[in-house]
Specification:
This protein has five helices and seven strands, in the order E-H-E-H-E-E-H-E-H-E-E-H. The chain is an alpha+beta fold and 188 residues long. A five-stranded mixed beta sheet has the order 1-2-5-3-4. A two-stranded antiparallel ribbon has the order 6-7. Helix 1 links the parallel strand 1 and strand 2 (56-62).
Length: 188
């Protein structure tokens, strides 16, 4: 790439002092109880928790509401290996467009954190929400890892073992017999 086509990085304004620290936080995913009813949705969440362990997943619910979606069961979630870890309250929905629930974002406002009039309006308008951090239990992580290892070894039909053995190569005799039978079947 030539120097003339390269974009220049924006410069920090001289009028502002340089920042001393910058932290990039992992993505936070908002989940509602309605999204954890079907087994496919729960399995997808387990997949995301295993393959993206740095992401944080939070289950938001209206505090004090007994309105449970039909089919939601916390015991079923625990059977899938989901753990409810950190419980927090005093979350309020930010005053954004209310047409799309996927775009909602929440802010935690306690009495000592209310600094502006718009924050007090949010608290007065309510409702208050709680959130629970969802994590994958260790036994489930080990179970998934064991399934992955088994599937890799089951799909490998090559009888040669490329690992330290006598004379540099090893042979798996069980796979050699299956491999030989498959070759002779194809020729006959």
């Amino acid at each position: 790439m030539s120097d003339s086509t390269r974009k220049e990085n924006p410069k920090w304004p001289d009028s502002l002092p340089p920042f001393t620290e910058m932290t990039l936080l992992p993505p936070e995913h908002v989940i509602y109880r309605e999204e954890l009813v079907s087994t496919d949705d729960i399995s997808n969440l387990v997949h995301d928790l295993f393959y993206f362990p740095e992401d944080k997943h939070f289950l938001y619910f209206e505090y004090g509401s007994n309105d449970m979606p039909e089919g939601f069961d916390s015991e079923k979630l625990k059977a899938y290996g989901l753990a409810f870890r950190k419980h927090e309250n005093f979350f309020y929905r930010r005053p954004l467009d209310d047409t799309n629930p996927e775009d909602y974002s929440y802010i935690q406002l306690t009495i000592d954190k209310i600094n502006y009039p718009w924050q007090q309006k949010i608290v007065d308008a309510g409702p208050m929400y709680g959130r629970v951090q969802i994590e994958l239990m260790e036994w489930k992580k080990k179970e998934i890892e064991l399934q992955r290892i088994k599937s890799v070894h089951q799909n490998d039909n090559n009888p040669l073992l490329l690992q330290p053995n006598f004379m540099g190569l090893g042979i798996d005799l069980k796979k050699l017999l299956k491999w030989g039978k498959n070759i002779f079947r194809k020729k006959v």
